[in-house]
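Researcher: For the record, we're logging two predictions in this thread. I'll number them. Prediction 1 follows.
Model: Prediction 1, sequence and structure:
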Amino acid sequence: MRPRCLLLRTLLPLSLGLGAAGVAADLTPWAGAPGAQPLLPWRFAGLPAQTLPRTRYSLVESDGALSLRIEARASYGNLLHPTDSMPGQLQWQWRVERFAASTDLRTQAGDDTAVKVCALFDHALERVPFVERQLLRLARSRSGEDLPAATLCYVWDTGLAAGTWIDNAYSRRVRYLVLRGGETAPTPWRQESRDLAADFLRAFGDEATEAPRLRAIAVGAYTDNTGSQALAFVRGLQHRPGGSE
């Protein structure tokens, strides 16, 4: 697969709809009927004319609150919320009922995860290294989408230790921080709270000295590379904008 095709595979599911009018100022809580996908502005984002099975997102009631059920069966796709705000504190709870099998985030063949929470940043193209910048321009031209230049994903992984930072195997425009590792399913609920600006600078500090605005928040699970199955839940996803907002 050619480099720009790899970029499209990685970044298109993180960009569809970002150019649409009426972008929310900040993160809207999940709303909708149990069993259904959350209401707009949350939307499924996959590949154009996707032939792979779609990762399934549905609302369920858990301990009196709505949780997002994320089921992957050799599937692909994110649930994405466009936004326009300064990066601040991102909080959520998550648990894993079933981990994807044979994953290895260091390789393309193993680049699958049972659950991830991602922040997409309005990173300036001129700050991207030259070769990657040219590839990104080609991919943007080919797709007709304003593909994000910097995405940070928090993942729960079984093969890497918590605290591991790693580039996505398909594109350095996506970088991972492993928040949880070494646990077996089913896991208990775990609480997370992250400073998005500080984490952006840790991930992309080689390209920027301050964090740009947020373009979107996404949750997701992929198991198409390993052909495996995974099941996870996320609840209480909240963002408190930083800066002067």
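Researcher: Logged. Prediction 2.
Model: Prediction 2, sequence and structure:
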Amino acid sequence: MARSIEQVGQDLIHLKKVSSEIGTELNTTYQSYFAALSPTLKQQSIQSCYYLCTTCYPDAFLKLNYNQRSQLLKTLQRVIGNVINNLMIRSIPSTLKDRHSDDDEPTGELTSISMMPTDWFATPTSLSTWQQNLEAEITHSLKEISYKVNLLLQQARVMPANIPKPILEASPEADRRGESMPNVPNLLSILLEQEMDESQLDHPLVGEAANGTEQSAWMGNEPSLEDRDEYPQLVQIHSLYLRLTEVEFADVNVLGLRKNIDRIANKVRMLKREYSHKQQELKIAEAESAWRNSWFEN
């Protein structure tokens, strides 16, 4: 026999209460996670920049004078710090964020931040959406750091000028066609084909094309010797590609908090399934009640 509307309604109220409790637990865990992730992400980003400038492109970096190098490094630190600070603010629910004055929020060239209201914890469905959005913010921030760092290094003429945009943007396409560098996390190495005018080379590694355009073929493997002449110019490009798994692996505390987040997120998924089932059960009970109320014997 189907359960009554009142019974199913009580189940839904209970699940909403559990959702609020789990949401509070998940939010607290995320705050601890971000507090640990922030310095680790900054350190990993700076270390990757250091490797790009000193090992991947040392000749180009040494071409900069002292003032240019100093300004570049200051800008890199500021951009990385701004993205991380804004990620921290995005993670704070609105009722907590309202306690901070505007003067306390970091400034910079980054876009404004959307708030995450705490009433998103009210149901398992909204809680799941909140958690997914937060994870998307983390992914976006890592790609934002990667892109801005790559762009700054290119503008400073440390990285070559003729690099396809997907590489600069640390896109999934670039990751699929490139490869990680052994023992060096958060960097992408990819073999790139470019047509050159050797009379106008001005980068220590590959230079620029005479007309300022590029032709590129993304190579998964280095060509054989007999095929090498078919390619105008093959160069190895290195760029920043922050990967969350590699950043987390660098700090045991961050890694432990990630495991806690995954554990709680699994509870959210199970709660969401149960909530959806109860919602469907309520619709059936309401439909049965409507049928009974509308039925009259002839």
